[in-house]
Amino acid sequence: MKRAGFTTVWLPVALLLPQLMIIAIFFYWPAAWAVQSSFYLQDPFGFGSTFVGVENYTDLMTNIEYAKVARFTLIYTALVTFFSLALALLLAVKADAVIKGAKSYRTLLMWVYAIAPPVAGFLGLMFFDQRNGPLTEMFQFFGWDFRLGADYNSTATAMVIVAVWKQIPVNFIFFLSGLQSIPKSVREAALIDNRSASGRFWDVTFPLLAPTAFFLLIINITYALFDTFGIIDTLVRSEPGNNPVTLVYKVFVDGFRGNDLGGSSAQSVILMILVLALTVFQFRLIERRIHYT
Amino acid sequence: MTFWKIAAMNAAVAISATAAFAETEITLWHAMGGQLGETVNQIAEDFNASQDDYQITPVFKGSYEETLTAGIAAFRAGEQPNIMQVFDAGAATVIGAKGATIPVQDLLTDNGVDFDINDYISGVRYFYADSDGKMIGMPFNSSSPIMYFNVDALEKAGVSAPKTWEEFQTVTAPALKDAGYIALSQSHLPWIFTENFHSRHNLPFATNNNGYDGAEDTKILVNNDAIKAHFTALTEWKENGLFEWYGTGWGDNQQPFEDGDVAIWLGSSGSFGGLMSKDLGFEFSATVLPYWEGVTSEPKQTFIGGASLFAMSGHDAEENEAAAEFFKYLTSPEVQYFWHQETGYVPITEAAYELAKEDGHYDRFPAAEVGIQQLSLPGGDNTKGYRMGFYVQIRDVMNREYGRILSGETSVEDAFSNIENEANDLLARFAKTQG
């Protein structure tokens, strides 16, 4: 096979340049700046600055509160990822089986996708309002003194519910198209082999959905880690208090509210490393084992 | 054809207008939203109309925190506004950055505006001053936490507004409970029950003269018996249904008072205008904050809350002159009285206070005077203010630990030792940023 190529080096470089510059200016430069300032403690206005080595990092590692925030982030990410994937899969499988009115049913399920995170947060505020929120009343009916903003577990529950609700449509769309791309012949063959619908699902459909599911797993983890910021900020009304927050929210609180540039830079570097690890995990460990058709 | 003629004429007029007036234009970045922002705009418009040499443009930049962050980012980019509003908790950051601002006292005297710190009411004089008593930031929207009460509820319970917390505990609160009310709520634990708790009882809040003598080695003194006893009392009141806490959000704690469920609410003197404009369905009034007789027999004045205006450095002399003129206009008794009436923030000068009294403002609205009365109470060694770096985070730590106390997650003892340790770590970190 003949490989098409450029005769000079400069043309491809020139063609790539705009893209490279965007990456350099908007990603590498700020990232490098964050790494650099994580080794300093500096006056917000840029007057004084002290080189402190890795002190910003050691301070974080020995800080009990930071560990608590990290632990909450882990649990929160796991819950949001699990529930938004599981519920979306359930809805997709059911929607796939619907024949009458399938389109309007699917459209309704995708609707929430268009809602911005802070707006989702506001809806959450109304549903979980301390005084007359319908969901607050429901929880109280079941004997849980649910109080958004005043009680740690209440706020955590509200955060998870709103974040899951917001993410289901995205997962639903992907799962549904994944299901629809499974060849009819395979399904029919499976139908002959196995009479149990759930058996067919776990033995045939689910493995064929694995590439979609894995892709969504990564997307959902990053969503829970980073994109739920707007939901959290709205639900805690920008006053974290004793409410749970995630690592990203803490970067914001310390950096933008508190003007501790060194400390919050160190936190963002830690998050960068986390994302890097996640990416390596995605490409190295699992992609090999998952068969994309 | 006519269209282009008109356009050309307009352009010509616009150009000649700029040339003819040559006004010095300055900007003011502030955090006053809603009705407060409209009042700021009104003051700016009136200033612009009052003379032909200067033109000020107020820009709303969001919350206090957002305004400060925006101002810092702009300063680092060399695009800072002429005047920036900075709130109480951010004062150490902006005052610590020597060279970021021109001390307002210097700005005024250099531009030929008379300045005497004694013209200002005693409670606001030194809060934004340096350790030598030089005023760095111009107190603008100054408020103080005061005690609002539902007059009908207190009458029904047959009690009067408590003067001391002992009275609240033994007389007022139980009577209110019997009358079917939750006796007390408050909207800002760090501000009302921490900072002003220390001021009201004349307790030192930090070493180094409450932090005024420099960031180096400043330690917070919040872990003391008086305040721990106060929070222990709060948890007991909460258990007995005498006090309720609805989370860290300001409005969540104010709403039950407005709904008539809570009889006494501690809020800002600046909340007065908002409460007046609502149809509450009951009569409300206000008085000074109670104190613990067991801690002090001579309660003192409180700190101011709210924010002040800082003149940013890096502008030319003409613009600084314009900023000085605006400050002069802003502190005139008439403008201060207008601001006081519209918003409920206290007038910052004695002259404006006198004007409000003469005009009968307090005969019409007695509760409007409470903030300034409280700020004019006798002062003590520890009442002029506090100056601590990274204070926004220290407040966040307090809010977190107080929330844990009140939701039963931690003990008063552990919470205060946590606050002390974390705050001191933050203060030590801040001291390093100043190096």
Which pair of protein chains has the largest interface, and what are the residue counts? Answer: A-B, 38 and 46 residues
Rounded to an integer in angstroms, the radius of gyration calculated over CA atoms of chain A is: 24 Å
Low-confidence stretches of chain B: 16-20
- String of helices and strands of chain B: HEHEHEHEHHEEHHEHHHHEHEEHHHHHHH
Q: What is the class of chain A in the CATH system?
A: Mainly Alpha
Helix content of chain A: over 70%
Taking the sheet with the most strands of chain B, its summary is: 6 strands, mixed
Q: Which fold name is given in CATH as the topology of the largest domain in chain B?
A: D-Maltodextrin-Binding Protein, domain 2
Order of helices and strands of chain A: HEEHHHHHHHHHHH
Per the principal axes of the C-alpha atoms, what is the gross shape of chain A?
A: globular
Low-pLDDT runs of chain A: none
Family (chain A): Belongs to the binding-protein-dependent transport system permease family.
Subunit structure (chain A): The complex is composed of two ATP-binding proteins (UgpC), two transmembrane proteins (UgpA and UgpE) and a solute-binding protein (UgpB).
Transmembrane segments (chain A): 9-29, 69-93, 105-128, 156-179, 200-226, 266-286
Protein name (chain A): sn-glycerol-3-phosphate transport system permease protein UgpA
